[in-house]
């Protein structure tokens, strides 16, 4: 197998770039559909094109869809498009791009639409539990999650943050001086969360340290073994 595979659940997985020779392996692994998120011609176009892939998939009896996405311009529309495809295509489905990250982020965007709570499992009555819960997906939260996953790739980590955008604040001083583009300081949160971590798009409303739990804005509880708190601080003037 020449590609990296990440199984999100029984029905959906993402992978790095696949080749025609990988399709029989994908079929043998039980997948019924393939989605290509990598635009034809990207990076010089040395990878197999969508038309060739579509023909090869058809020959093997795999469903195929082409949903190209530029990694730096992911939007809710990509999530909506993926939802529509998933409603139609036989499962399990394997989506791929160059590294797998873009496909993962589109899946996250798809999960945020209409049913954001379900995406995090927080809407279920069942209590969600993680080894490590990180509150705040700013520079601190993302960095600590990445660092932990480097050392413990299988750690079950959740990052709780309601913001759909990530702001790189240190660059704002340069923006103020007129020497940095403010647009470059904002990126979709989904594109920065490490693929092995679960993003819970909610705010924490209460800490319950005696019970190793936090309460979310939607009222749901999340249990943890270790809690890392990095929501930064807010200025509230004189109170
Ligand atoms: C103009 C300016 C210039 C700066 N320059 C520098 C610099 O040069 N060098 C430097 O080191 N630092 C600088 N800083 C400080 C900078 O803010 C921090 O370095 C860095 O952004 C802090 O990251 P953070 O993750 O702690 O906080 P943030 O990036 O603010 O992230 C906090 C996250 O927590 C989330 N959050 C908040 N409340 C909750 C809640 N209840 N539940 C869940 N999530 C929540 C927020 O949505 C946010 O995404 C600057 C700041 C400013 C404003």
UniProtKB/TrEMBL annotation:
Domain Beta-lactamase hydrolase-like protein phosphatase-like: 12-110
Matching InterPro entries: BLH_phosphatase-like (IPR005939), FAD/NAD-bd_sf (IPR036188), Prot-tyrosine_phosphatase-like (IPR029021), Sulphide_quinone_reductase (IPR015904)
MF GO annotations: FAD binding; hydrolase activity; sulfide:quinone oxidoreductase activity
Sections of the chain in a coiled coil: none
UniProt superkingdom: Bacteria
An annotated GO BP: sulfide oxidation, using sulfide:quinone oxidoreductase
UniProt-recorded name of the protein: Beta-lactamase hydrolase-like protein phosphatase-like domain-containing protein
Biological source species: Collimonas fungivorans
């Amino acid at each position: 197998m020449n590609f990296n595979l990440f199984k999100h659940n029984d029905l959906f997985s993402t992978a790095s770039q696949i080749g025609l020779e990988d399709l029989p392996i994908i079929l043998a692994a039980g997948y019924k559909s393939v989605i290509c998120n990598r635009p034809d011609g990207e990076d010089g176009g040395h990878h197999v094109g969508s038309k060739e892939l579509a023909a090869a998939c058809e020959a093997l009896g795999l469903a195929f869809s082409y949903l190209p996405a530029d990694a730096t311009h992911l939007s809710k529309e990509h999530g909506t498009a993926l939802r529509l495809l998933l409603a139609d295509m036989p499962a399990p489905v394997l989506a791929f791009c160059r590294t797998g990250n873009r496909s993962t982020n589109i899946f996250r965007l798809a999960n945020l639409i209409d049913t954001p709570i379900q995406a995090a499992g927080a809407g279920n009555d069942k209590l969600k539990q993680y080894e490590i819960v990180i509150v705040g997906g700013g520079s601190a939260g993302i960095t600590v999650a990445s660092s932990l996953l480097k050392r413990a790739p299988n750690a079950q980590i959740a990052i709780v943050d309601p913001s759909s955008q990530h702001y790189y604040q240190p660059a704002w001083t340069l923006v103020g001086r007129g020497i940095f583009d403010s647009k470059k300081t904002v990126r979709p949160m989904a594109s920065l969360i490490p693929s092995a971590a679960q993003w819970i798009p909610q705010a924490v409303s209460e800490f319950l340290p005696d019970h190793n739990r936090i309460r979310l804005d939607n009222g749901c509880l999340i249990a943890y073994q270790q809690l890392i708190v990095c929501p930064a601080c807010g200025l509230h003037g004189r109170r």
